[in-house]
Specification:
By secondary structure, the protein is an alpha/beta fold. The chain folds into 2 domains: 10-48, no CATH class; 54-154, no CATH class. It is built from 6 helices and 3 strands; from the N terminus they run αααβαβαβα. Strands 1-2-3 form a 3-stranded parallel β-sheet. Helix 4 (88-96) runs parallel beside helix 5 (117-123) and helix 5 (117-123) runs parallel beside helix 6. It is elongated and about 60 Å long.
């Protein structure tokens, strides 16, 4: 179902008794490993909350994928589910249109190495990633500045 190369590593802390209970299931052959058990438990929980997840995704999709009738002339909006990579040309194209980017990704967003913090500050109105953001440390600092400014403007 999942490709190993697209997985992110998480570290969790569990009480010893819960860990022991997991080990009993692994030793009995219900799961091949602790990791497989944890993945199965996470999937089951996500599946049980799928209606809520779908409603939130629809809500954000409606915001970030405007129709022709509701299209905001000031912003270039992008909504994506999965893995997306955005490079310098995307942000330059947004600026050339006289707009700013609004980006929402459910999954993994990779901002390519050729994107500078200065370009981010000039071209991005908002960025939201539910999942994983991969970018240079400098670009992450610029994105945090944008996020902080938006919070201040909303006060």
């Amino acid at each position: 179902m999942y490709e190993e190369t697209k997985m992110e590593k998480l570290t969790i802390n569990l009480p010893p008794v819960e860990l022991g209970r997991i080990d009993i299931l692994v030793e009995a052959g219900y799961y091949h490993s602790r990791t497989e058990f944890i993945r199965a438990a996470i999937r089951k929980t996500l599946d049980s909350q799928q209606d809520y997840i779908d409603s939130k995704i629809k809500q954000f999709k409606d915001i970030y994928e405007p129709t022709e009738k509701t299209e905001d002339k000031k912003f270039d909006s992008t909504f994506s589910m999965g893995v997306i990579s955005i490079g310098k040309s995307h942000f330059e194209r947004v600026l050339s249109k006289g707009k700013k980017a609004k980006i929402y990704v459910v999954g993994l967003l990779n901002i390519e190495k050729n994107v500078t913090p200065e370009l981010i500050l000039k071209s991005v109105e908002s960025l939201r990633v539910s999942g994983v953001l991969k970018a240079s440390p400098e670009v992450k600092v610029a994105l945090n500045q944008i996020k902080k400014k938006r919070k201040e403007d909303q006060k």
